[in-house]
From TrEMBL:
<dbReference type="InterPro" id="IPR011059">
    <property type="entry name" value="Metal-dep_hydrolase_composite"/>
</dbReference>
<feature type="domain" description="Amidohydrolase 3">
    <location>
        <begin position="53"/>
        <end position="239"/>
    </location>
</feature>
<protein>
    <submittedName>
        <fullName>Amidohydrolase</fullName>
    </submittedName>
</protein>
<keyword id="KW-0378">Hydrolase</keyword>
<dbReference type="InterPro" id="IPR032466">
    <property type="entry name" value="Metal_Hydrolase"/>
</dbReference>
<dbReference type="GO" id="GO:0016810">
    <property type="term" value="F:hydrolase activity, acting on carbon-nitrogen (but not peptide) bonds"/>
</dbReference>
<dbReference type="InterPro" id="IPR013108">
    <property type="entry name" value="Amidohydro_3"/>
</dbReference>
<dbReference type="Pfam" id="PF07969">
    <property type="entry name" value="Amidohydro_3"/>
</dbReference>
Length: 253
């Protein structure tokens, strides 16, 4: 991770959470280091004339950055910027969103997420035929809210030789277990390196906005692939943003 700040910054007028100084209302940051915490009056005496920037917190709470111990950042980027099916109140609404997304992104792989048929009046997810009707010949991968199954298009199945023999395959396109892993891998591999970087940056930017300073990327051959994993760690090391720690999980031979 590269430095996010330069110079000396004084934050004052807030509530700074630290057991070392329970009454702290001010904090001084130099580069990537919290240099000092204390009261506003003490901060003014010690740093008031030296600060390159003064930020008035207006009573805001300042805490240490959070740590997210289990993330898949490319998938998170897809959830932030891809086809969002969370909140769809019916199968018909989900298909409408899919059709609109396909029209707006011709020629691209469509990765959607978040559908949940539990409370839909139809009581079921979209079939492969319905997905094809909505998205044409696009590669379509739509993961359920639990991300452990997905529905897909005929074009995606055609790009996955042998998937029909995999455990969890169904003709209607709702895939589970090994068939789901294969379909996810096909969809993932259709994303270009440039698109992947855009998705990863979006996820890292959102983490920073939420006050997350460190993330544990949980990668593996069935989740993200080695290129995705290594490219993410390289990106996080070269650009400002949260620290990313890579955890790779794979069964041994």
């Amino acid at each position: 991770m590269t430095s996010l700040t330069t110079g000396l910054i004084l934050l004052r007028g807030g509530r700074v959470y630290t057991p070392a100084a329970p009454d702290a209302t001010a904090m001084v940051v130099r580069g990537d280091t919290v240099e000092w915490v204390g009261t506003d009056s003490a901060a003014q005496v010690a740093y008031g004339d030296a600060a390159d920037q003064v930020i008035d917190l207006d009573g805001a709470l300042v805490t240490p950055a959070f740590v997210d111990a289990h993330v898949h950042l490319t998938s998170t980027g897809l959830a932030l910027s891809g086809l969002d099916l969370a909140g769809c109140r019916s199968l018909a609404e989900a298909l409408d969103r899919l059709a609109r997304h396909a029209r707006e992104h011709p020629g691209e792989v469509i990765c959607g997420q978040g559908w949940d048929e539990t409370d839909w009046p139809e009581g079921r997810p979209p079939t492969r035929a319905e997905i094809d009707a909505a998205a044409g010949d696009a590669l379509v991968y739509l993961s359920r809210v639990d991300v452990h199954s997905a529905v897909v298009s005929s074009a995606l199945l055609a790009a996955a030789p042998g998937i029909q023999q995999a455990d969890g395959y169904t003709e209607d396109g709702w895939l589970r277990r090994e068939a789901h892993h294969i379909a996810r891998r096909v969809a993932r591999d259709a994303i270009t390196p440039g698109q992947r970087r855009v998705l990863q940056r979006a996820a890292l930017r959102r983490a920073a906005e939420l006050g997350i300073g460190a993330l544990h990327e949980c990668g593996g051959p069935e989740i993200s692939g080695e290129d995705d994993f290594t490219d993410l760690l390289r990106l996080a090391g070269e650009e400002p943003g949260p620290e990313v720690y890579g955890l790779w999980g794979e069964l041994g031979a």
